[in-house]
Amino acid sequence: xxxxxxxxxxxxxxxxxxxxxxxxxxxxxxxxxxxxxxxxxxxxxxxxxxxxxxxxxxxxxxxxxxxxxxxxxxxxxxxxxxxxxxxxxxxxxxxxxxxxxxxxxxxxxxxxxxxxxxxxxxxxxxxxxxxxxxxxxxxxxxxxxxxxxxxxxxxxxxxxxxxxxxxxxxxxxxxxxxxxxxxxxxxxxxxxxxxxxxxxxxxxxxxxx
Amino acid sequence: xxxxxxxxxxxxxxxxxxxxxxxxxxxxxxxxxxxxxxxxxxxxxxxxxxxxxxxxxxxxxxxxxxxxxxxxxxxxxxxxxxxxxxxxxxxxxxxxxxxxxxxxxxxxxxxxxxxxxxxxxxxxxxxxxxxxxxxxxxxxxxxxxxxxxxxxxxxxxxxxxxxxxxxxxxxxxxxxxxxxxxxxxxxxxxxxxxxxxxxxxxxxxxxxx
DNA sequence: TGCGTAATACTCGTCTGCGAGTACTCGTAG
DNA sequence: CTACGAGTACTCGCAGACGAGTATTACGCA
Lengths: 209, 209
Known about the structure:
The structure is a homodimer. Chain A has helices at residues 9-18, 25-34, 45-57, 82-97, 105-111, 118-146, 156-181, 187-196; strands at residues 61-67, 75-80. Chain A is mostly helical. The first copy, chain A, is elongated and about 70 Å long. The model of chain A is unreliable at 205-209 (pLDDT under 50).
């Protein structure tokens, strides 16, 4: 039980907003959304209330008041506690300081790319490349637009994302090059395997690693 | 309901092994583990049986026999169906062809790096850089060792991972550079904020984007 | 003034993921 | 020859995640 008391990243997001001022859950979601954080961490309504309740259970936030404002449903406003502040900082420290690498799904796909023939593989990789290009472009545009409005520090995540997107695009382009020019060794063996369904006779490679 | 009938990636892994020959769940896990796939997709025993059951429910695999071999607990052996084959290929196609980008936790950390002061940020980033270096090194070693034993095609995922790790390391190094040389604009405002806890007066940036 | 639609602020129940057990067996060191 | 630890092959139950629903109010507009 070395695990974080509240494991959901949404909890981190909640802490980050409630740090500024007390809020009720719905407002947290609204603020997060409006700041564009929901692009990185999609807000699930179902989880929000569970997560806030958990944060409360562990003493990271506490209920301040229950306002019956106008005729609207009753809202419970939460405030961050000192323990919550600590937890938040510590969490950020962990996130920044350690690479845990939840393995990207693309990697799983790559490791099984064999089942598609080379031709399908090429097609799919082209699609991916296109999407990566669009994503990079969108980030560049966002940066350009935001740069004059915000301190650099608040844009660093976008710069990072852009850098990584470009890196991936570069890699995919390189791999694609190898596939299309036929530079990748074993390309025809691959094609033969995919068409006939049978391996060449070099299967001894499974036992090791 | 556009979602995949069995959503868990572990399902993909199961399909990928059961494609070669019929197996019982425990054996699937063993094979996966022994091939080192468990580095990318940690096998959770709890999920394995649920996932296999689900695959069966949707007709992607079917039970072949229940062997009572020796005195061991009874094992149910599963075989892939044609539908399972299709599902598998389609899944791989999706994985390779579309970038869905489950947002890296590091990005979340970066977007909140403000709460750590610049000094702590620097420390943590140094740690990360070190870990990235180790990871890259490990991958390079693995590649060198495996290259003569396996066709290139089976190493492509590792090459990809290496490329991405290096890219991240490069980015972190660059950012760290800016922080340590003081090239990052607003660095002292940041330090002041962290020490005193109060913002400079430019808060108008929250409302837009 | 009446009506449809959007926004507000949740609640509920299902379904999944998975950690922690369980029970049996085999090899082997003493 | 027997006790013990490591492997084998699962089962169970709970905690969390999340979609879909609900009830109320505000607001545009014809």
